[in-house]
Amino acid sequence: MIPKIEKHELIFPNPNDANEDGIVAWGGDLNPSRLIRAYQAGIFPWYSKNDPIIWWSTNPRLIMELDDFKITRSLRKSIKKFEYKFDTDFIQVMKNCSSVSRNNQNGTWISTEIIEAYSVLNGMGIAHSIESYLDGNLVGGLYGVVVGKVFCGESMFSFVSDSSKSAYAILVKHLKYWGYDFIDCQVPTDHLKSLGAIEVNREYFLDRLHKVNMQTIEHYWEIENSLLDN
Length: 230
Fold this sequence. Notes:
This protein is an alpha+beta fold. 32% of the residues lie in helices and 25% in strands. The chain folds into two domains: 4-58, 2-Layer Sandwich (Alpha-Beta Plaits), CATH 3.30.70.3550; 62-228, 3-Layer(aba) Sandwich (Aminopeptidase). The strands form two sheets. Strands 6-7-8-9-10-5-11 form a seven-stranded mixed sheet, with helices on both faces.
């Protein structure tokens, strides 16, 4: 039986006790304290609109080692087309992510409830977005949650070819520059694997996460122009 979390409870079951699908628990709410504890434990919410909140710790887990991100020659050219910003329009990035149709998905899991919860984390300096602009228009980007020295990627969108991949590349450059360890990509996808992400087992992922999830890195979420030319 999948454990239920009551709204007054902030403690999660051990993610290693997740069922074979990767479900750790259900219930609770999306208050900031619960979300922060979830990400620190390697757990994330993922559920359909009108369903109860389901908490996951998938096995295998997809991670991006920052040195392994693949920048092809064509992507390197695309990167130069866009202007990049952090956290300029976080909510719109989430809304755009929710509007993009995806293979094997009916509708979106990024509900109004999710947008409101993560916008609070953004205001706390815990969730961040990176955005690609073309001619002043927001055309691509992604958002995620910072846990210690790990960036947990949540979702991305692209209205112009390579706009989200270019934003991802710029994010990777900055995370390396600031001293982050890796990106948690959560659920394995062919797209992220093509960029260099690898599957690891849950035990390995949690061990890596727990070594750095309480460490902090002091920096501003601002574009370093020197990184755009490399």
